[in-house]
Amino acid sequence: MPAAEAAEFAVGPAPVLRGSAAGEGTPIVLCHGLTASRRYVIHGSRALERAGHRVVTYDARGHGESDPAPPGQSYGYPELIADLERVVEAEIGAERFLLGGHSMGAHTAVGYALAHPERLSGLVIIGPTYTGEPAPETLAYWDGLAAALEEEGIDGFVDYLTREGSTAEAWREPVARISRERMELHRDPRELARALRETPASRPFGSLADLAGLKVPALVVASGDEADPGHPYAVAEAYAAALPHARLISEDEGQSPLAWQGGRLSREIALFALQPDVALST
Fold first, then answer.
1. Residue closest to 160 by CA, chosen among 180, 137, 134
2. Cα(88)–Cα(83) distance, rounded to whole angstroms?
3. How does pLDDT run across 220-232, given as a tens digit for each residue?
4. Which residues contact 200 (CB under 8 A, 6 or more apart)?
5. Residue 12 — φ and ψ, nearest 5°?
6. What are the tens digits of pLDDT across the range 26-82?
7. Residue 187 to residue 265: CA distance in whole angstroms
8. Residue 220: enclosing H or E segment and its boundaries?
């Protein structure tokens, strides 16, 4: 059966968050990463809808079609988690659901899960990077990326990303191309400069030790460091080790990162949703 067209939605008050919901069945909410938008969690795949899920995605504040952070607010994780709470209230209601996210979205999802574990049937953590207090060299990289975006726009952003990142030579061209495509989907790409400075300096939760008390079934998706060094494999391993009920998966050697493979990633999430401890808790 063909998947139904996505229905657009907007959640207020300020900032207004714009997103889409498609499919019918057990709900799944997906959160994207920093400088991405709602398309870039499962990359347009419709496999989850065909597997019997209602898939809810939205653009984070200042990303895609959503409004920027209003005066007096920031792009820190407390606000990002509160935004997710607003989307859940508006689009999911009281129903239990499966929550997933990539990078910034993964940290937002974990922060939500720690605050509301009773709401979740399962948790999908894709490419996490946060392990505690951000390292000064990491923050310096994000500040440099923000400055490049402010001064030279998308061209400067992509140039800095490929020049200063540690991606292996064989993967630099696709990384540059995908990064440019992502940036061109934002209503105001330069607004993201503020997010580039504020989000990495923020804390979604205390430390990985906090995960020991999270009993929600979890699927952790790791990427190989050659293609995606910004999302270290070892960090994903650490999340899987810290969570009491987690399974770690990744792509096969030599393949593009599983986080980039929308169809296969969707199928892995669909299989995770069928696990008895996940399916029976919805």
1. 180
2. 9
3. 999 999 889 999 9
4. 34, 134, 138, 139, 142
5. -115, -175
6. 999 999 999 999 999 999 999 999 999 999 999 999 999 999 999 999 999 999 999
7. 27
8. strand 218-221
Rounded CA gap, 99 and 110, in Å?
9
Residue 18 β-bridge partners: 10
**Measured between alpha carbons, how far is 51 from 48 in angstroms, rounded to an integer?**
5
CA distance 169 to 162: 9
Q: What SS3 class is residue 174?
A: helix
DSSP per residue, 180-218:
HHHHTTSS-GGGHHHHHHHSTTS-SSS-GGGGGG--S-E
SS3 content of the chain, % helix, strand, coil (to 5): 45, 15, 40
Q: What is the DSSP letter of 13?
A: S
Q: Where are the beta strands (DSSP E) in 2-115?
A: 7-11, 17-22, 26-31, 53-58, 97-102
Sequence-ordered list of residues with C-beta below 8 angstroms from that of 92, at least 6 positions apart, any chain: 27, 29, 56
Average pLDDT of span 101-123: 98
At residue 232, what is the residue type? P
Please tell me whether the overall predicted TM-score, pTM, comes out greater than 0.70 for this model: yes
Nearest to residue 6, comparing CAs of 38, 40, 51, 41?
38
Distance of alpha carbon 29 from alpha carbon 52, whole angstroms: 14
Other C-beta atoms lying within 10 Å of the C-beta of residue 141: 18
Distance CA 7, CA 233 (A): 35
**pLDDT value at 282 more than 70:** no
Q: Which CATH class is domain 7-132+202-279?
A: alpha beta
Domain boundaries, the chain: 7-132+202-279
Report phi then psi at 112, rounded to 5.
-65, -45
Question: Residue 275 in contact with residue 238, Cβ under 8 Å?
Answer: no
